[in-house]
Structures are given as C-alpha cells and as structure tokens.
Specification:
- Helix content is 16%, strand content 35%.
- The strands form 3 sheets. The protein has a 5-stranded mixed beta sheet. It has a two-stranded antiparallel ribbon with strand order 4-9. It has a two-stranded antiparallel ribbon with strand order 5-6.
- Strand 5 and strand 6 form a beta hairpin.
- It is globular and about 45 Å long.
- The two termini are 29 Å apart.
Length: 141
C-alpha cells in the first residue's frame, strides 16, 4: 500500500502524461504552497488545476468513490479552520481513479465550496440519478 503523498504524486504524473499526450504544456509551480498543483496550457487557455488520487469508496456503494475537498489549516493566532476550493484558486479538479485507470476533468463550479465530491462508476441499483455524478460524464478526453 502506498502512502497518500505517493498517491498524490502518482495522480499528478498521470495528469502530466495525459496532458503531454494531448500536446498541452504542463507547468508546475516552482514553490510549494499554491492551492493548485499545476497549470495546463491547451493553446487557447491556461487552466489552474488541482489533482486528486481517489480510491476511497463511499460507505453506501461499492461503485461510488469520494474525493475529499477540504483541508484543515492550523494557525496559532486564529486556531483551526477548514479551507475549500474556490474559483479564485483553481479552474479544474482532475481526479485519478485507479480502479478505472482514468482521469476525470471536473470544473470548479461543480466542487466549489464543497467538502467532498462523489463519482459513480456504474449506475445505482435503485435507479437514482439525482445528485449522482457519473464518472463517464467527466472523463478527460
């Protein structure tokens, strides 16, 4: 089992590889601490991206995977607080699901100010569609 840092690096490498295959320019910040992992230049627009590795199944379904989107920050003056992604920080969330070995391109409008985002790889058994995010709808093509 690999640790979370290694998983994050693996997902970032997958995103870089795929972007390069599409002839996009993949840029990484030279300093740590930015809220985005990289910038992708597709020739028309530059996208600030956050990349996540997702192997966490939801508690309700074996075909649904949840990406955690909030981070706790600790400041000795202000105490602890949660930080969630906003459109001022990123343009896109790219999620790597190892179970499908695919990348998913999720606009920040879908995840902004949310604590988590679930991707379903197969339809639910009860036919529910409301609130379901089918992974196939977000596949990076």
């Amino acid at each position: 089992m690999i640790n979370t840092i290694a998983k994050g690096h693996w997902a970032l490498l997958k995103a870089e590889q795929y972007a390069t295959e599409k002839d996009y320019i993949f840029l990484r910040p030279t300093i740590e601490g930015t809220r985005y992992d990289a910038v992708i230049d597709d020739g028309n627009k530059m996208w600030k991206i956050q990349v996540k590795y997702c192997d966490r199944q939801t508690s309700t379904s074996e075909n649904c995977y949840t990406v955690l989107l909030e981070k706790w920050y600790h400041n000795y003056k202000l105490g602890s607080k949660k930080k969630r992604y906003t459109h001022s920080e990123i343009d896109v969330l790219i999620v790597y699901l190892p179970i499908t070995d695919r990348l998913y391109w999720i606009p920040v409008s879908e995840v902004e100010n949310k604590s988590e985002f679930a991707l379903r790889i197969e339809p639910s058994k009860n036919g529910q569609t409301k609130g379901c995010h089918m992974a196939a709808d977000y596949e990076w093509k």
